[in-house]
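Protocol step 4 of 6.
Sequence for SGNH hydrolase-type esterase domain-containing protein (Oryza sativa subsp. indica) entered exactly as in the expression construct, tag removed. Do not edit the line below.
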Amino acid sequence: MRPSIVLFGDSITEEAFGEGGWGAHLANHYSRSADVVLRGYSGYNTRYQYGGDCAGLPERTNESAGAYARACVEVAAECGLRVIDIWSKMQRFPGWESSFLRDGLHLTPRGNRVVFEEVVFALKDASLGLEALPADLPLFCDMDPNNPVKSFDE
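Step 5 output, structure tokens:
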């Protein structure tokens, strides 16, 4: 059975499958070895518990995002799970706010590239890189030109 990589999330994950998105890059990267599937939820205009009234909610500040990211990293460590700390990674680049985020939250193509590279590295580190997964179909260079059908029997 072909392995699956399932992406859970909100609008950021949903947009990952748009043009230049990290999910689309990941699906292309694993196209011969695994299915990359989106199981997300977009919070756009649906079931928003505050009905558009954001009064009293924490602002979307870098400080708040950093506190949230640190809490996520701590919980993952307590649970023995791998984590990709994108917030800390992006902080290392000058001008990251406009370079990686188009609206203060959603990723630009450059931000998507950073996420893609970090996810691929984490999967490889977990022994789930391309070299660890069998390809669905033989490579052209591995096919017998005199009997190409034989290459599909293996």
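Step 6, annotate. The chain has one domain: 4-152.
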